[in-house]
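Query structure, 129 tokens:
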């Protein structure tokens, strides 16, 4: 499971088989580099592709740290189970991920503080006992 990250359907399709770091670097450079010039020679903005990559190197290292945290969270069975049985997670993509992050932030923080309580329906708890 080295390529597992939480993502909406649209982002997951764009991600494909890229690692999270490959995806981040590609997105960032695609949006900042005009495509003119070469990897070593400056484009019209004054930055070569190499310069741009070096400028985001620290960001990539931070991303890798964040990915380690996410991988640990994904590996936590109680957390995974809480998300699976949390209140209805219905998404309307036109509202955007930031809307849902804000909407569920308090609920997630509360569950985290409580150690990811078992919120499965009683009928499910009885079947697995």
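Result returned for the query:
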């Amino acid at each position: 499971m080295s390529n597992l990250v939480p993502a909406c359907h649209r982002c997951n399709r764009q991600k494909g088989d890229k690692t999270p770091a490959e995806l981040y670097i590609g997105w960032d450079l695609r949006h900042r580099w005009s495509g003119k010039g070469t990897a070593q020679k400056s484009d019209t903005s004054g930055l070569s592709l190499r310069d741009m990559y070096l400028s985001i190197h620290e960001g990539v290292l931070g991303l890798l740290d964040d990915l380690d945290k996410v991988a640990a969270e994904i590996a936590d069975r109680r957390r995974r189970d809480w998300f699976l049985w949390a209140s209805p997670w219905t998404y309307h993509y036109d509202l955007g991920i930031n809307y849902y992050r804000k909407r569920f932030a308090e609920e997630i923080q509360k569950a985290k503080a409580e150690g990811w309580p078992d919120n499965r329906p009683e009928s499910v708890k009885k079947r697995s006992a």
